[in-house]
């Protein structure tokens, strides 16, 4: 038999049964797709996700009942942002080169490719149902928060102090990466636009934090004084799939468009400041930090004490704050997005205030 053909890169509307057959066969699955139905899933701001339920002319036990594909956003503003920030190229390269060693649980990737000249891409993954997507607005339970803390530590331990990441131009924060388009001037201008758009809904200490942070973003992003590691950089419930009453893996982490070689505890602060209420976070923060540290050291990380962790964690919520107002102004505006970004911003401001940051 000849080797299976490699699928091309295409948008959801151009997907057909032959293309889905090629996706499966090049992944080593002997199946022929006869037909399918497609429906959008998820709440992504930068990408569009589609579930393809498959009907087979021939399919063995390893042929999946459905696949989930990720494509460039159908919204022009969001798509342009994904291209400008290198998000689409970055996510494809993560699945191609880093996912196998990242220790954190990610979806099986059947096929992914990207055109570096245009940033057109496709990412075909396993359907994680009956696991259910987390919800930034609803937040997470205490048990779900513990799972997320453990998974963060696993991710960070996987490439702790791994300076080979500095050689990869598609890793944010690496020495080989091109300068970010998010200059200090751009960040400051976006903050002023955000403040004008949402002014009546912003609390005084949120505004104070924004005025302080927006002019110092470049400095804050480079001031980390500890070991670096592989970080997610958008570590929040919307990018997670949790097991449901019907089953599924306990926690799978999605959306690898923003990952970086940076400060691991920033992911921890980003998640806890935005995914749980300030009251729950304050009550359980010592437990969360101890769980993270124990997991980290159990995976072989040495020379990183609790005092270092507390300091870096206390500084880490700035990224959630900046992401909230930055993203609000560069993606297609929606009612849910408005509520979500304000919630993220407020949680980050409370965290920074609590930790004297």
**Residue runs with pLDDT of under 50 for 5 or more positions:** none
Radius of gyration: 20 Å
CATH class of the largest domain: Alpha Beta
| CATH structural architecture of the largest domain | Alpha-Beta Complex
Distance between the termini: 62 Å
Derived from helix and strand composition plus strand pairing, the structural class reads: alpha+beta
Helix content bin: 40-55%
What is the strand arrangement across the widest sheet? 1-2-3-5-4
Under CATH, the topology of the largest domain is which?
Aminoglycoside 3'-phosphotransferase, Chain: A, domain 2
Strand content: 15-25%
Query: What's the main sheet like?
Result: 5 strands, antiparallel
How would you characterize the overall build of this protein?
The protein starts with 16 loop residues before the first helix and ends with a helix. The chain is α+β, with helices and mostly antiparallel strands and 357 residues long. The chain is globular and about 60 Å long. 44% of the residues lie in helices and 18% in strands. Helix 5 runs antiparallel to helix 6 and helix 11 packs antiparallel against helix 12. The strands form three sheets. Strands 1-2-3-5-4 form a five-stranded antiparallel β-sheet, with helices on both faces. A three-stranded antiparallel β-sheet has the order 6-8-9, with helices on one face. A two-stranded antiparallel sheet has the order 7-10. It has twelve helices and ten strands. It has two domains: 115 residues, Phosphorylase Kinase, domain 1; 223 residues, Aminoglycoside 3'-phosphotransferase, Chain: A, domain 2, CATH 3.90.1200.
């Amino acid at each position: 038999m000849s080797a299976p053909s490699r699928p091309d890169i295409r948008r959801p509307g151009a997907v057909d049964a032959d293309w889905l057959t090629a996706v499966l066969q090049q992944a080593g699955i002997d199946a022929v797709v006869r037909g399918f139905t497609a429906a959008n899933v998820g709440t992504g701001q930068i990408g569009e996700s589609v579930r393809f339920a498959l009907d087979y002319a021939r399919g063995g036990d390893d042929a999946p009942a459905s696949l989930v594909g990720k494509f460039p956003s159908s919204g022009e503003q969001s798509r342009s942002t994904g291209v400008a920030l290198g998000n689409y190229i970055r996510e494809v390269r993560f699945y191609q080169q880093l996912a196998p060693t990242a220790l954190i649980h990610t979806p099986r990737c059947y096929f992914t490719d990207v055109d570096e000249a245009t940033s057109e891409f496709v990412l075909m993954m396993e359907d994680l149902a009956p696991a259910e997507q987390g919800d930034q607005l609803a937040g997470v339970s205490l048990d779900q928060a513990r799972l997320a803390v453990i998974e963060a530590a696993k991710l960070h331990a996987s490439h702790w102090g791994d300076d080979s990441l500095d050689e990869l131009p598609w890793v944010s924060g690496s020495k080989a990466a091109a300068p970010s388009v998010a200059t200090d001037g751009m960040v400051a201008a976006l903050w002023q636009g955000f403040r004008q758009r949402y002014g009546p809904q912003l609390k005084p200490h949120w505004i104070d934090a924004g005025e302080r942070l927006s002019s110092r973003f470049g400095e804050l992003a480079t001031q980390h004084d500890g070991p670096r590691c592989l970080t997610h950089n958008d570590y929040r419930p919307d990018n997670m799939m949790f097991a449901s009453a019907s089953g599924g893996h306990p926690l799978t982490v999605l959306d690898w468009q923003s990952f970086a070689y940076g400060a691991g505890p920033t992911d921890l602060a980003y998640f806890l400041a935005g995914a749980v209420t300030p009251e729950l976070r304050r009550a359980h923060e010592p437990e969360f930090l101890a769980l993270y540290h124990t997991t980290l050291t159990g995976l072989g990380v040495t020379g990183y004490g609790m005092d270092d962790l507390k300091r870096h964690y206390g500084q880490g919520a700035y990224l959630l704050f900046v992401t909230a107002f930055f993203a609000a102004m560069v993606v297609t505006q929606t009612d849910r997005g408005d509520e979500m970004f304000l919630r993220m911003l407020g949680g980050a401001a409370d965290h920074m205030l609590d930790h004297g940051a």
